[in-house]
């Protein structure tokens, strides 16, 4: 009867030390980036680590150093372009700084769900937490919790320990572009109003109209989806009393473009359309979409920079990032001009 062989034992730090001919403490110093070691020794030990393919056990390292090098991320709706892109950018920035992410997705915005997700992250010994859940009720619940690690929220600008895109400025740039082209009747397809980003973009829309003394009309409250944009377009375009649309995101703009095409409304000849986010597909809509681009890579860098400052006992203030208007073929002067 054949006897099953035992699986090979995983390498540990003492195996690396034995192969390199040094103490395991020296290997540990190399792994932790200590400056208390000669460069020649560091290079030798690192070459052995690379040759053996050794990877430190994160749990063992956390126990030995009392540091997990892990940042928790609390997120909701992470499948949407904005949150998903922000998480990716933050992960790359964290990795560059020697950290890894532990992600908890909210089941809902209810207080019990928020507290359970935070407790789950803390159980993984995270050193800090980033909140990418732009619903106001989530931010309020997190803000009221007593947590012993630093927290940075991607939320409204002006809040302490928050990193933000200036959504109001981005929305104003979109509306200003349409107004500069000569549009006086501009409709806004807004996102869900429990989202701080949707609220800020709506505020920007209203402020720019007011600053230019243009007619203000109530925004249509949507849900970020192309389906809502399509349904809104099918309704609005039956009796159009506007010449331009500012959609709260590119997906709703896409749905509106679909309605235009189905009803024979030409873009931009009959109506101009502006989105928000500049998703990768926006340049390939028909016509290519004028939109507002958010620099998520820089957002990730600044978020990690702010967290590292807090971990070092510093309070680093960061100005909001200002989104960039990207002009493409979906906007033009209204026909009357």
TrEMBL record:
Matches recorded under SUPFAM superfamilies: lambda repressor-like DNA-binding domains, Periplasmic binding protein-like I
Alphabetized, the UniProt keywords read:
DNA-binding, Transcription, Transcription regulation
InterPro entries given in the database record: HTH_LacI (IPR000843), LacI/GalR-like_sensor (IPR046335), Lambda_DNA-bd_dom_sf (IPR010982), Peripla_BP_I (IPR028082)
SMART domains recorded for this chain?
HTH_LACI (SM00354)
What would you give as a GO molecular function for this chain, any one? transcription cis-regulatory region binding
Residues covered by the HTH lacI-type domain: 11-65
Instruction: Kindly indicate whether the keyword Protein transport belongs to this entry.
Output: no
Q: What highest taxon heads this organism's lineage?
A: Bacteria
Name it.
Answer: Lactose operon repressor
